[in-house]
């Protein structure tokens, strides 16, 4: 480890932006906040654009590490303590000056701040808290801030940070406890899940006391994500529960008993930590006066560093959405940066196509009413590399097709390959005025490239169609193979900007 203390801010910036490029958990802000007199900037749901530079960094955010020094020796991390690389650290004032300077020049619209761990988790978290406090209170910065929670930091620091940041995230890193123990021995499920549960409960507390519901609706969800599963929150002033308990959600990660085994360690750790995370240190009135993490929380999993299959990863993703109310789960194709016997060879190609399929399936879980158990199974644990998950599911379930667009429920239309949320809504609205035809669908902007194989209009298909797996598969494979080639033959590695995580009217069709 080479520690440099005499670097200029520009030299530090070069090192610490490069070190942050492997963290993909940044996206649109997801929060609206108007400008204030005497403050600098504002934030909009669409304010942080989906624009990425060649090496994966979101160019609309100042995306940096506070420090690339770290006490952990995670085998997959370029900043692990055993790597012989130049180390440096910002000061809180330097981060503030960089953020304000870039913002005034219109280079950025917000700050994404992550960090390695200095001497202790609490010491690092205190420095980050000081940075955010100065930005908000001294520099009066009113723009978007996404901050990473340090595993193992005290609940009091996590709570205070939540009133300064727009979004908080803590990386799950790997889907199983076994993988985490093998590649990141300094981290535990408890250190990761305790602040995740605490942020979830803080969001629920803030939403209830501010008088509005900020839960993230998901078509598959039958329970209130914002209030699901945690121990009740207690007021130190009255000793009373501030939120009702919702039974059966802490360990009920899945309707499938088989997939529970993939993430039972989350369940056991969550039982130990939910009560501690549920106690609040700040007065309840703080939750009435300020919004707590208004843009929600997210996490990230590394794809391809450990041998878990897609079904395991998607099952854990589903559990996180249902039980922790996460806004997004990000996937990062492992880019070999270290030589280790427990890791893929440094000459291995990043599994970009696999990452792409996981993002597509993630979208199906959140907004299209699918479950992990429908898309994959223990007998069929990995996605089809030639077809997107929705097309693959449809071909394996042809008994549910064709769908009559003039009568099918909205939820059924969403399951038709090629029909997105926007198209399904247009169909439901338009058919109230009269029967729909294929020509009418085209005029409405419905793309029939894939959907034509799975729908009828007034009982008729667009052309004579054989409802056969081989026939439909061969018809769909050409475009999918070209798309797969584009993904796996990129000149440089970058995070895929697939979806806007707030606006379903994006027109995306899956």
From TrEMBL:
<dbReference type="InterPro" id="IPR007197">
    <property type="entry name" value="rSAM"/>
</dbReference>
<keyword id="KW-0408">Iron</keyword>
<dbReference type="InterPro" id="IPR051675">
    <property type="entry name" value="Endo/Exo/Phosphatase_dom_1"/>
</dbReference>
<dbReference type="Pfam" id="PF04055">
    <property type="entry name" value="Radical_SAM"/>
</dbReference>
<dbReference type="Pfam" id="PF12836">
    <property type="entry name" value="HHH_3"/>
</dbReference>
<dbReference type="InterPro" id="IPR013785">
    <property type="entry name" value="Aldolase_TIM"/>
</dbReference>
<protein>
    <submittedName>
        <fullName>DNA modification/repair radical SAM protein</fullName>
    </submittedName>
</protein>
<keyword id="KW-0949">S-adenosyl-L-methionine</keyword>
<keyword id="KW-0479">Metal-binding</keyword>
<dbReference type="InterPro" id="IPR058240">
    <property type="entry name" value="rSAM_sf"/>
</dbReference>
<dbReference type="InterPro" id="IPR010994">
    <property type="entry name" value="RuvA_2-like"/>
</dbReference>
<keyword id="KW-0411">Iron-sulfur</keyword>
<feature type="domain" description="Radical SAM core">
    <location>
        <begin position="64"/>
        <end position="200"/>
    </location>
</feature>
<dbReference type="InterPro" id="IPR023874">
    <property type="entry name" value="DNA_rSAM_put"/>
</dbReference>
């Amino acid at each position: 480890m080479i520690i440099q203390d005499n670097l200029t801010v520009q030299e530090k910036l070069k090192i610490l932006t490069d070190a942050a490029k492997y963290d993909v958990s940044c996206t649109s802000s997801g929060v609206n906040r108007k400008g204030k007199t005497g403050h600098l900037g504002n934030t909009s749901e669409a304010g942080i654009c989906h624009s990425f530079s060649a090496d994966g960094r979101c160019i609309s955010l100042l995306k940096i590490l506070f420090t690339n020094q770290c006490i952990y020796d995670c085998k997959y991390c370029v900043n692990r303590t055993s790597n012989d690389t130049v180390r440096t650290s910002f000061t809180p004032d330097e981060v503030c000056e960089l953020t304000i300077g870039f913002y005034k020049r219109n280079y950025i619209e917000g700050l994404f701040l992550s960090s390695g761990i200095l001497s202790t988790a609490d010491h690092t978290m205190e420095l980050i808290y000081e940075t955010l406090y100065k930005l908000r209170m001294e520099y009066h910065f009113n723009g978007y801030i996404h901050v990473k929670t340090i595993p193992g930091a005290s609940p009091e620091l996590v709570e205070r940070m939540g009133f300064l940041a727009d979004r908080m995230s803590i990386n799950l890193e790997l889907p199983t406890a076994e993988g985490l123990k093998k590649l990141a021995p300094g981290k535990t499920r408890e250190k990761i899940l305790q602040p995740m549960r605490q942020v979830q409960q803080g969001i629920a507390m803030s939403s209830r006391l501010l008088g509005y519901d900020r839960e993230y609706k998901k078509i598959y969800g039958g329970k209130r994500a914002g209030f699901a599963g945690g121990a009740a929150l207690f007021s130190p002033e009255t000793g009373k529960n501030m939120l009702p308990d919702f039974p059966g959600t802490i360990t009920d990660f899945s309707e499938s008993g088989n997939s529970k085994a993939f993430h039972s360690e989350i369940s056991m750790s969550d039982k130990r930590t939910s009560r501690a995370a549920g106690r609040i240190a700040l007065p309840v009135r703080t939750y009435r006066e300020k919004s707590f993490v208004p843009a929600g929380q997210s996490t990230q999993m590394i794809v391809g560093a450990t041998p878990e299959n897609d079904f395991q990863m998607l099952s854990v993703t589903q559990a996180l959405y249902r039980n922790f109310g996460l806004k997004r789960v990000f996937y990062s194709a492992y880019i070999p940066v270290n030589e280790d016997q427990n890791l893929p060879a440094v000459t291995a190609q990043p599994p970009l196509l696999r990452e792409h399929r996981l993002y597509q399936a993630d979208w199906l879980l959140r907004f299209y009413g699918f479950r992990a158990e429908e898309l994959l199974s223990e007998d069929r644990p990995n996605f089809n590399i030639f077809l997107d998950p929705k097309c693959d599911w449809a071909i394996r379930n042809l008994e549910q097709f064709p769908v009559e667009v003039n009568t099918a429920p909205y939820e059924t239309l969403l399951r038709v390959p090629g029909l997105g949320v926007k198209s399904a809504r247009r169909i439901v609205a338009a058919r109230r005025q009269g029967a729909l035809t294929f020509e009418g669908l085209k005029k409405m902007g419905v793309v029939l490239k894939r959907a034509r194989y799975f729908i009828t209009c007034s009982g008729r298909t667009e052309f004579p169609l054989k409802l056969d797996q081989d026939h439909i598969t061969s018809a769909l494979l050409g475009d999918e193979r070209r798309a797969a080639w584009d993904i796996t033959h990129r000149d440089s590695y970058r995070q895929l900007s697939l979806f806007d995580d707030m606006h379903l009217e994006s027109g995306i069709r899956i």
